[in-house]
Amino acid sequence: MTTSKRVPNITSLGKDTKGLLGVSGNHLYLGQLATQVITAIDTWVKVVQGEATRREEIRAWEATQRESIIAQRDVLIKGLDLTFDERRETFRRLFDSLDDAMKKEDAQLASSVLEKIADLAKSSPFKDLGNVQFVVDELKKGERTWTL
Q1: Can you give the three-state secondary structure of 73-90, one letter per residue?
Q2: How many Å is the Cα radius of gyration of the chain?
Q3: First vs last Cα of the chain: how many Å apart?
Q4: What are phi and psi of 142, to 5 degrees?
Q5: Among 69, 59, 58, 6, which Cα is nearest to 36's?
Q6: Separation of alpha carbons 23 and 17, rounded Å
Q7: Using CA atoms, how far apart are residues 125 and 147, in angstroms rounded to an integer?
């Protein structure tokens, strides 16, 4: 993170005192040096505290995002389980209807049921997963109750 203030480099203090210290003749302006040291330390403390706060904010955001992703994944997995349960039940009912039509020797009904079985087999429960809005809309539908 860059700050709007320039962070003084306090590691060079005492190494090169020319220019840093207000040297006039043989007199050092120790008050000015003390002010510079205090300002540098104050700036350093503020930056360190600000960055520590920022790291905590990032950790909190990361934890929130992780929980959200896990919850969404769990809903998706449960939705897929329910979708496959529903498809299995639909196939079972259609095959039962086909058995009944065959027992009754009703070719037209058997043909109709076979067409429905073929249509269901051709469709994929995954076909609309690429469309995120469709998935969100399906999850929000009021006629379905999602339990985890």
Answers
A1: HHHHHHHHHHHHHHHHHH
A2: 36
A3: 42
A4: -75, -25
A5: 6
A6: 8
A7: 19
Tens-of-pLDDT digits for all 148 residues of the chain?
444 556 656 565 555 555 544 555 545 678 888 888 999 999 999 999 999 999 999 999 999 999 988 888 888 788 778 878 888 899 999 999 999 999 998 989 989 998 998 888 888 766 655 666 666 676 667 666 655 5
Q: What is the DSSP string of 32-98?
A: HHHHHHHHHHHHHHHHHHHHHHHHHHHHHHHHHHHHHHHHHHHHHHHHHHHHHHHHHHHHHHHHHHH
For residue 96, the one-letter residue type is D
**Residue with tokens 């020797």, as numbered in its chain:** 105
Tokens coding 5? 């203030």
Angle (CA) 138 64 58, round 5°: 140
Structure tokens that stand for 58 in this block: 């990032």
Burial of residue 33 (number of CB atoms within 10 Å: 0-12, 13-18, 19+):
middle
Q: Which residues contact 95 (CB under 8 A, 6 or more apart)?
A: 117
Structure tokens at 120: 């269901």
Question: The pTM is what?
Answer: 0.47
